[in-house]
Amino acid sequence: MALKITLKPLEKIIIAGAVITNGKDKTNLMIANKVPVLRQKDIMTEKSANTPCRRIYLVIQLMYIDRKNIKTYHNNYWQLVRELISAAPSTLNLIDAISGKILADQYYKALKLTQKLIEYEQEVLKSV
Q: Residues 75, 38: one domain?
């Protein structure tokens, strides 16, 4: 079954590593095969990866869209995870769930779980 995506005017999307910017009009795309797809709202830039959990999201995003460097990204991920758990043990359950998705090659699902980790991080930072 094809993935149908409707892009807003000037919206960006990453498809199989290619960054695509939509034109002035709304566009419908049908993606017939299984490739990494990230909409603009789900794309994390290096500049916006300014907290530990956002850096974890960024490295998972890179695992998802740049498979040829996956070993490097995995090493970076596990280092970031060790640091986060050391600083905030309360994140362990979410990290376990995210890591399970990564080990099962389900990077998009790992990204979605990491969004919950980022929300948790924001709550913790507000209460400090």
A: no
Q: Is the model's pLDDT at 125 over the cut of 90?
A: no
What's the predicted TM-score (pTM) here? Answer: 0.92
Task: Kindly state whether residue 64 falls inside one of the protein's structural domains.
Answer: yes
Q: Which residues contact 47 (CB under 8 A, 6 or more apart)?
A: none
DSSP annotation string for 35-81: --EEEGGGPPPTTT--SHHHHHHHHHHHHHH-GGGHHHHHHHHHHHH
Answer yes or no: do 15 and 58 share one domain. no
Q: What is the length of the chain? A: 128
- Same-domain pairing of 60 and 116: yes
Q: Give the per-residue pLDDT at 2.
A: 83
Residue 47 lies inside a defined structural domain of this protein: no
Q: Which domain holds residue 74?
A: 52-127
CA distance 28 to 16: 17
Region of residue 49 (phi > 0: left; psi between -120 and 50: alpha; otherwise: beta): beta
